[in-house]
Amino acid sequence: MTLTRTSPADGEAPPQALSIGLLLVILIVAFEAMAVSTVLPRVANQLQGLSWYGWASSAFLLASLFGAVVSGLLSDRRGLALGAGISLGVFAAGLLVSGLAPDMPAFVLGRFIQGLGAGGLGALPFAVITARYPEARRARMLAAVSSAWLLPALVGPLLASLMADHWSWRTVFWGLIPVLALAGPLCVLPLRAPASAPQSSAEEPATASHPRTLWPALALTISAGALIEGLRRADLPGAVMIGAGLAGTLLSARPLFPRGMGRLARGLPSALVLRGFAAFAVLGANAFLPLALHELRGLSLTQAGVLLSVGGVAWTVGSWVTDQLERRSGPESRPVRIRAGLVLISLGLGVTALSAMGVWPLWSAYLGWCVTALSMGVAYNANSLLALSSVPAGGAGRLSGQLANIEVLMVALAAGASGALLARVPSLPTAFALAFGLMLLGSMVPWVAATRLRQV
C-alpha cells in the first residue's frame, strides 16, 4: 500500500481513536495469524481434509499478496478510509465463511477471502502512519505497532487451543468478528477527514506504479496457486499444472522483483532471495509443526500452542537483540550477524525436526524452536536493514513491497509443498520427515545468498 495524497502538518497529532483503532486491527490480524496454526490440526481432523492442509495456509497467503495491491490501489484513488473499510469487511466475511465451513474446501475458500482482506490490513499501518502522523510521532507509533504482535504471540496459540478444547475451533473465527466491529469505526472514521497538508511530489511515482503491478500480482497469485495444486495431485492434469504454474510464477514475478535474483546478483537481489528462503524454511515449518507434534508425539493443541508462543516471543527478542547490536556494532556488523543467524536457524530446525520425529526427547523441540525463532529475529531484521540501505530514500516504499511479497510467496509455496507431501505420501511419519527435510534444504540456500550481500 502506498501513501494517499495528503500528509499531516508538522506537530499535528491525529485523533486518539485512530491510534486505538489501528492497534486493534493489528492485534486482530496478529491473533488470527497465531491462532490458525494452532487449531488447524483440529480443523483438518473434524472436516476430514488432511489432503487440503497445505491449502489452508497457501490460499490465505497468496490472496493476501493480491489483496495488498488492490487495497493500495483503492486507497490511492479513493482514500485510505475506503481501502481500510473494504479490507475490514472482506476479512470479516472470510472469518464468517471459515467459521461456518461444512468441509475443508469451504474452509479454504474462507481462508482465501480472509487473505484478501488481511493483505490490505497488513499494509495499512505503514500507510496511515506515514500519511497521518507527524514526523515526531511516527517512530513511537511504529514501535507500538511492532509491540502489538507480542501479546498475540504470547497468548494467541494458548487462547485459541483453549477455545477449541472447551467450545469449538469455529469460535476462534467467530470471536474476532465483534472485535472487528469495534475496531472498524475507530480506524475508518478518522481516516475520512482530510489531512492538513499536501503530499510532496516526490511520493507521486509510487502511486503511479500500482496499476502496473496489479495484473502481475494477479498472475502471480493464480500461477503459484496452480503450481501448489499441481503438487498436490498425482495425475496428468497435476503435471500440466506444475509446468504451467512454474512458468507463470517465474514470468509474473519479473515485474515485481529486481533482476538478478535467479543468479544471486550482488546486493539487493541476494538480500531478497535470502529473505524469501529464510521465510520458506522457518514459517513453512511453522505451518505444519503443530500437526507434526500432535500426530507424531501426541501433544494436545494447547501443548503445541505453547511451542508457537515460545517461538513468537523468541523472534521478538531476536528483533530487540538486533536493535542493540546495531547500536553497539554499527551497520558494518550486519553481514556477520546475518550469517551467524542463518547457521543457527538451520541448527535449530534440525533439532526441532529430530524431536518432532521422536528421535530426540520432546523438550528439545522447545529448545530447537526457540533457537530457530531467536536467530530468525536477528538475521531477518539485519538483512532488512541491509536491504533498505542499498536503495535511495525514494525507493524505500517499493522495497518494502518487494520484501513483503517475496516472503508471502515463498511461505505459500512452502506450505503448499509440505501439504502436498501430506496428501500424497501414504505414511504420515515419512511425509513429515520429507517436509522437515525440504525446510532444512531451504534454510541452506540463504547461506549462499549471504556471501553475495555486499554490493559491487
UniProtKB/TrEMBL annotation:
The chain crosses the membrane at residues 20-40, 52-74, 81-101, 107-129, 141-160, 172-193, 269-289, 301-321, 342-360, 366-391, 403-425, 431-450. Residues 18-454 form the Major facilitator superfamily (MFS) profile domain. It is found in: Membrane. Keywords: Membrane, Plasmid, Transmembrane, Transmembrane helix. Pfam families: MFS_1 (PF07690). It is a multi-pass membrane protein. The keyword Chaperone does not apply. GO terms for cellular component: plasma membrane. One of its GO terms (molecular function) is transmembrane transporter activity. This is Putative major facilitator superfamily putative membrane protein.
